[in-house]
Automatic annotation (TrEMBL):
VTT domain span: 29-155
Name of the molecule in the record: VTT domain-containing protein
Transmembrane stretches, start-end: 12-29, 49-70, 136-158, 170-189
Family membership: Belongs to the DedA family.
Keywords in alphabetical order: Membrane, Transmembrane, Transmembrane helix
PANTHER family from the UniProt entry: ALKALINE PHOSPHATASE LIKE PROTEIN
Organism the protein comes from: Paenibacillus elgii
Domain of life, per lineage: Bacteria
Record carries keyword Ion transport: no
Coiled coil: none
Coiled coil in keyword set: no
Length: 216
């Protein structure tokens, strides 16, 4: 935590832009911690809160767009062979491809809050030829929510940043799992709509008959 504060003292906003840009390339950088510390420094008057949010957002989005272009241009064969140099091993690539197949492009929307996913979202979205407009939409919405969340945590809670980041990471992942389950149930209900209506109608008629009998 101290080394990040020292970097902020030397390089200011550049730490956020290039750090989050690098993290989007799957390079090791504690993006959430850096944003939270910057948010805390804004509460002390060192930085401007709106500037922190804007610079962080641009760094994260730019990095994801670059990785998307790389994934789209280089394709699956390249990453199956050389992906390990991008920390994207064949096993992880297959897993993320399965996730996209299961949850669709909307996975991009929540990817920032899922550990081990946001670093590779751009690569995999490009490999799978996700429409660029779709990437910009979902990545843009997810990115601003992610940035605002962690900058605000640092701005409000300051000294207890690390404990709160652990809690947010833990429960945000749980929230994503719950949302995925709800989405799955919604898709299932849509596909089995006729059967569901038939089942509900039968239950309603059964309750209605039971009520009539008890009334007699």
């Amino acid at each position: 935590m101290e080394w990040i504060s020292q970097m902020f003292g030397q390089y200011g906003y550049f730490v956020l832009f290039f750090g989050l840009f690098a993290e989007s390339l799957a390079l090791p950088f504690p993006g959430e911690l850096a944003m939270a510390i910057a948010g805390h420094m804004a509460s002390l008057g060192t930085f401007q809160l709106t500037s922190i949010i804007l610079v962080s957002y641009l760094g994260a989005i730019t990095g994801t767009v670059v990785t998307y272009m790389l994934g789209r241009r280089l394709g699956t064969p390249f990453f199956e062979t050389y992906g390990k140099y991008f920390f994207l091993k064949p096993e992880r690539l297959r897993q993320l491809t399965e996730w996209f197949g299961k949850y669709g492009d909307k996975l991009i929307l929540v990817s920032y809050f899922v550990p081990g996913l946001r670093h590779f979202t751009g690569y995999v979205a490009g490999i799978l030829k996700v429409r660029f407009g779709t990437l910009l939409l979902y990545n843009g919405i997810g990115g601003i929510l992610w940035v605002v969340t962690y900058v605000t945590v640092g701005h409000i809670f300051g000294a207890k940043i690390e404990q709160l980041l652990h809690l947010i990471t833990q429960y945000s992942f749980g929230a994503v799992v719950v949302l995925a389950l709800l989405a799955g149930l919604a898709v299932l209900a849509r596909k089995k709509k006729a059967l569901l209506i038939q089942w509900l109608r039968a239950r309603y008629e059964g309750l209605q008959k039971l009520f009539v009998r008890s009334a007699k």
